[in-house]
Amino acid sequence: MATESTTVDPIHQFAIQPIIPIRVGDYDLSFTNASLFMLATVVVASVFLYLTTASRGLLPSRMQSVTEMTYEFVASMLRDAAGTGGMRFFPFVFSLFVFVLVANLLGMIPFFFTVTAQIIVTFALSMMVILTVVVYGFMKHGAGFLKLFVPEGVPMILVPLVVAIEIISFLSRPVSLSVRLFANMLAGHITLKVFAGFIISLGSLGAVGIAGAVLPLLMVVALTGLEFLVAFLQAYVFAVLTCMYLNDALHPSH
Amino acid sequence: MEAEAARYIGAGIACLGMGGAGIGLGTIFGQYLAGALRNPSAADGQFGRLIFGFAVTEALGIFSLLIALLALFG
Amino acid sequence: MSDPQETAGKAGLPDRQKLKTGEGALDDRLARLNEKLDAKTVRDTADGDNIRGKSGMGQALRLSSEFVAAILVGAGLGWAFDYAFGTGPFGMIGFLMLGFAAGILNIMRATGRVSDFGAPVQGEHVKSDFTVGSDDEGKSA
Asked: One digit per residue, pLDDT tens: chain B, 74 residues?
């Protein structure tokens, strides 16, 4: 969106601009380009999943097998990490995985806004995961959930220290979960933009420059491939870690 | 304002200590990798010692980070 | 395949025996095929399902983000503690050290050296005993 400026500013693509300004009291609730692309992500994912499964052929078409493979992929991931009891979280994990994946892939289209390169979005997603873990853990196990922080076989003197360390380790999970996704997408898009900028600035130098611009062009092509890999990998990592955290909520004493 | 400037400069100087820890970590991981390439079968058994060395070295770096944070926010 | 048929056609008497060897050969081949398939599937799952099988860059990013996140949380908690209770620099000092320990713990969890939350072995123990936790290596991500 809005990259009319001639000089290349790699950060500019992440700027949030209001499309429909809405103001409630002191709060800015504008419908921004981030909101637009989050909405687009949800719409694209829902429409794709709905259309591909609408015919429900016994012999799946290509698109239907994409959906079925995604389903099987997430289901086996969750079953491996959290056991069959974890399957009650399947809708949640599947939604998270598809949302992150589609948002990452949409961001790869030129001039599109990358929602997952906003730390507040990834942080909200990871807080959702951690709050689910905490709330469900307390609902299911009551105070027994606190056993999560008290490992067995530790001498009594060390227990307060270890519990403090475990709590900080637990609190660092949403931070690392969100920062990983955010940093990967941000770094990838900035790198792409910088190398694309090299092509333009070299190309304006005349014939020699245009010949030299082939190198960054090749680099950009390679990086684009890499970014598609990263887009998938980060969605996968996000979902796998979600499954592992949910496993803690289900089996705190393990 | 002078004191404020001195505080930022102090925090920056304190962070130089992190560079020392970085050199140490580079040595540790480099030597581990060299040893692991010489005798790959023994590498897995020494991973605990690698983490131990990493922890002790990085702890010294954390001390200087602590001083920097205290200079900034303390 | 052609050998047993041929000999079985020549003499009537060893017919059953030859048939048996034919079956035996088929069994042999089936067993060999199964072995190959097993080896292949085992290798596939070992490569594909393990999160550690991905690129070194991804693993490095993962480990460093785990470590830094714990330290940031420790520093934040320490600052908030000092801000709330006015305990001078000591909250920051204590919580930053705890955050550092949690960061090491995170790294060891991520590499599968220490099993996940709630399991017996912890960081303090590992420092005195270097061989701990190697039995459930590869289980964790």
From this structure: 688 899 999 999 999 999 999 999 999 999 999 999 999 998 888 888 888 899 989 988 999 999 998 888 87
DSSP state of A31: E
To probe the interface with C, which of B32, B33, B73 has the most C CB atoms within 10 Å?
Answer: B73
Sequence spans of domains, chain B: 1-73
3-state secondary structure of A234: helix
H or E, element range at B36: helix B16-38
CATH class for the domain made up of B1-73 = mainly alpha
Q: Where are the domains of chain A?
A: 12-250
Nearest to residue C123, comparing CAs of C137, C93, C103?
A: C103
Q: Is the dihedral of CA A158, A163, A166, A172 positive or negative?
A: negative
Mention every residue, 6+ apart, whose C-beta is less than 8 A from residue A214.
Answer: none
Residues of A within 8 A of C103 (CB-CB) are 172
Show residues of chain C in contact with B66, CB under 8 Å.
92-93, 96
If we measure between CA atoms, which residue out of B53, A147, A168 comes closest to residue C98?
A168
**Residue C81 near residue C95, CB atoms below 8 Å:** yes
CB proximity under 8 Å: C 50-89 to B: 71, 75, 79, 82, 88-89
> ipTM value of the model?
0.78
Residues of chain C with Cβ-Cβ distance to A152 below 8 Å are 118-120
CB atoms within 10 A of CB C3: 11
Q: Domain-by-domain residue ranges, chain C?
A: 8-114
Quick one: B34 exposed, middle or buried, by C-beta within 10 A (0-12, 13-18, 19+)? Answer: exposed
pLDDT tens digit sequence for A152-200: 777 888 888 889 998 999 999 999 999 889 988 998 899 898 888 888 8
Coil, helix or strand at residue A112: coil
How many CB atoms are located within 10 Å of the residue A147 CB? Answer: 15
CA distance B56 to B63: 11
Using the structure block, give the residue that is written with the tokens 């290509």.
A62
Helices (H), A108-158: 119-141
Interface contact C107-B51, CB threshold 8 A: yes
Which secondary structure element, helix H or strand E, spans residue A27, and what is its range? Answer: strand A27-28
**Mutate which: B44, B67, B70, vs C, most C CBs within 10 A:** B70
Residue C99 contacts residue A168 (beta carbons within 8 Å): yes
Q: Do B73 and C79 touch (CB under 8 A)?
A: yes
